[in-house]
Write a sequence for this structure.
């Protein structure tokens, strides 16, 4: 009976670790970082409202010579679509948060590209 419980506990722990939830919990507990990268999406907070963040995102894409294929914007949410030279889609989503800040979400392709996402984030932040 104890062996069965131990086996079930082991299976549950392995499933928990494999699901990626442990990384989120460990990352949240560690704190300190202002951004997160989970399941291909880079998330960060910008110290600007949505209109200023939207303009910074457009300028950041232009700095990187990335075309703006689609853009939508209002005072609460905004979004930009672009494409890398290798054909991967770029999605930037902006959403108003408390205190006049903006949450930015960057996704590259289907699975994400952490390095390219960080380059885009740096380009956006350079215009704030």
């Amino acid at each position: 009976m104890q062996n069965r419980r131990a086996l079930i506990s082991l299976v549950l722990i392995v499933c928990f670790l494999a699901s990626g939830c442990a990384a989120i919990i460990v990352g949240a507990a560690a704190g300190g970082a202002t951004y997160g990268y989970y399941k291909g999406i880079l998330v960060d907070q910008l110290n600007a409202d949505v209109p200023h963040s939207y303009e910074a995102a457009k300028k950041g894409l232009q700095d990187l010579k990335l075309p703006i294929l689609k853009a939508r914007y209002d005072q609460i949410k905004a979004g930009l679509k672009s494409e890398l030279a290798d054909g991967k889609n770029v999605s930037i989503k902006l959403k108003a948060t408390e205190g006049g800040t903006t949450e930015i979400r960057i996704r590259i392709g289907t699975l994400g590209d952490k390095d390219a996402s960080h380059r885009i984030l740096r380009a956006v932040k350079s215009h704030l």
Q: What stands out?
A: The radius of gyration is 18 Å.
